[in-house]
Specification:
about 375 residues; two-stranded antiparallel sheet; about 0% strand; single chain; mainly alpha; 18 helices
């Protein structure tokens, strides 16, 4: 039924894809640690959301990396807090979060097998999709300030990491981010610089637990979670399509496989007691920058996280947060089309579409991609009417 990434290898290019997978996995683990705090979950439950084997099997994009992301983790925690009185990190909270992920995946699968998904994406103008993704990248860059500006040594580490990555990129090498991870961990291990580290990690990843989808107060929480999961399904679905069109503007693809891949990924994450997952701007940009060209990089990342996390969790705890921020900055800033943004500014007030894009950028930068999506949907629906 679906044409998948498996049939679009376009040359294996094994070495670059393996390197890209290794590099992205090094960034993904520190990000999952911070996402766990946003979602109110133990770190292993956030880590398991990175192990996405479904998207390479169903999805078509060469670069898109799906997993636990900051804005979805934050929204999920808000939705669960509105749906249940459970304490953060409690078994009931984890069960509610898993149920939210399961329902989100079910909605996305429904979108993929019915015209809903295609019509939802068709509602948004291509310029709106670009503005949503761009605002997400800008917002992500601004969020790195808390890690970079904490101490003088943090600033120094971030600057060194960014310069090193850009220098190696200029020399046509995709090993820059991976080099920063290795050097940063060494500096953190020997405590050569005063910078915030990832910290101690729980080494045990959670196993499958279907019974966790049925939690106390289930009857009263179920209607709320259904509504909230629909919002998450719409947000992550549209964001994924926008991101694919942003990173691969020349690619012709079907909406259905992407939504099916997201849906199955959320279902699997729910079974392993994780939170809802979505597309990651920083990891997708890093995957493309590091030489990833097909599903091998995503599979490599997932396998590396499963195999390496438990035995290497003690060493990964020494990775400086500012180094992760440097990698995110390098990956995201290259993806921002500054000339297009300037063009929107110049046409503001004279061209309705340019003004709309600039407003979406402003809303997304200040409040996140969820609000940018709502603004874009409202405007494009108004334009159709």
């Amino acid at each position: 039924m679906f044409e998948t990434a498996w049939s679009r290898l376009e040359g294996w290019d094994l070495s670059n894809n393996v390197i890209a997978g290794l590099t992205v996995s090094c960034l993904a683990i520190p990000q999952a640690v911070s996402n766990a705090a946003l979602a109110g979950l133990p770190v292993p439950n956030s880590i398991i959301g990175l192990c996405q084997f479904a998207y390479p099997c169903f999805g078509k994009s060469r670069y898109l990396i799906v997993g636990s992301v900051a804005n979805i983790a934050f929204l999920s925690a808000k939705f669960v807090s509105y749906s249940t009185t459970a304490d953060v990190n409690s078994n009931e909270w984890i069960a509610a979060m898993s149920t939210l992920a399961f329902l989100t995946g079910a909605w996305q699968i429904l979108f993929s097998i019915t015209p809903i998904g295609k019509n939802l994406v068709a509602l948004l103008h291509p310029d709106s999709l670009w503005a949503i993704s761009t605002s997400g990248a800008v917002n992500l860059i601004l969020l790195q300030q808390s890690s970079i500006l904490r101490t003088v040594h943090s600033v120094l580490l971030a600057c060194m990491g960014f310069v090193l990555i850009e220098f190696m990129k200029h020399r046509h090498s995709s090993l820059g981010p991976l080099t920063v991870v290795c050097l940063g961990s060494i500096l953190g291990y020997f405590q050569l610089l005063d910078a915030d580290l990832v910290g101690e990690l729980n080494a045990q990843l959670p196993g499958p637990n279907v019974s966790a989808l049925m939690f106390p107060n289930f009857q009263s929480s179920w209607p709320k979670l259904i509504g909230f999961s629909l919002l998450l399904a719409i947000l992550t679905s549209v964001d994924s399509i926008a991101m694919i069109q942003w990173f691969e503007p020349q690619m012709v693809f079907l909406v259905e496989p992407e939504l099916m891949a997201l849906g199955v990924g959320n279902l699997l994450t729910a079974i392993f007691q994780g939170s809802p997952v979505g597309p990651s701007v920083s990891r997708t940009a890093l995957n493309k920058q590091s030489g990833g060209t097909n599903w091998i990089s995503a599979m490599t990342m997932s396998f590396v996280i499963i195999l390496v996390y438990s035995p290497m969790s003690s060493l990964l705890s020494f990775f400086p947060k500012s180094c992760a921020s440097a990698i995110v900055l390098s990956a995201c800033w290259r993806s921002i089309e500054t000339t297009r943004i300037v063009g929107c500014v110049m046409k503001f007030g004279m061209d309705a579409r340019a003004s709309c894009c600039l407003m979406i950028l402003a809303v997304g930068t200040a409040m996140g991609t969820d609000w940018a999506l709502l603004f874009a949907l409202a405007y494009d629906l108004y334009a159709l009417v």
